[in-house]
Amino acid sequence: MNRLAAPKFDTFTLKNFQLESGVVLPHIGLAYRISGTPSSKPPLLTCTAFSQTYYDLAYLRGPKLALDPKQDWIIHTELLGNGRSSSPSNTLPPFNGTNFPSVTIRDNVALQYTLLQHLGVQEIKAVVGASMGGQQGIQWAVSHPEMVERAVVIVGNCRATWHVRLFLKALANCIRSDPAFQGGNYTTPPLDGLSRMSEAWAPWTFSPEFFARQDYQNYPDTCADSLDEFLAKWRTRYHTNDANDLLCHFQTWSNHDVSLTPGMDGSIEKALGNVKTRVLFLPTRTDAYFPATDVAAEAALVPHSELVVLDTIHGHSAGFGRSKKDREQINQVVSAFLSH
Description:
340 residues, alpha/beta, Rossmann fold
């Protein structure tokens, strides 16, 4: 579901919020929603991924699923730059559009922490997220190790590799290549650039096995009889998103590195070695962004970690419940981890 069609949300607002860059935003808003009934029990916290809303993890939420609002209360937060939390597209001058400052995963965690303090939350049962949401989960474990009991990192990692940074730069350049983009000061959406970005992204999102099967009929959002028909639908995937918002997320993703947390001296070993949280890493066998071997190497640095590699042909997209099998696998593993 795209951000425009996602259900209603609340906004937590702050004045004069200082980002890691040193920029102070006069007003900042964090989109969030609460499922279940708030209580004295520590809540679950969910974090969103690239361009997404809390609804994109709906396949994990419900009766007898990993996140059951009848058993736990859940605070769903949304990433800065997604068009609902503060973003280039909804921030007033002088920080609108291309003037929106760089934000980091740690900026998001700091804002979420302030929201939880406002709600009177002192402990978190678990932080759960996929991709950039998982990056927030591990950052929570590094920044607030005494506060978070568990973290679930689905198709996510602990820092952006140079391989991923080059990939993200190429996608950003697809958007910028559209003459309608006008250096970010567009008056009409740069749809050609957004289409180029989406098509360039397709082989990364899935896997060689997925395309070799030539089976595109089992997926509601891209149901198709051929590759051409599949790509025709895939090209319009981000047409409802603001281009500057997407570029904001590319930058946030590229900057992700838990070793840059204050006090960690740029050492990934120190950052992850200090984690007291129990962490579940769920990479997939076919993920091109976060290969299972890379995630396994990071997980080995976390004192209390579990690694489960999901067997799927859907690459990175499996982390968002691409198929019934993916959804069942992830729900089963996360449910077991949270109930230990």
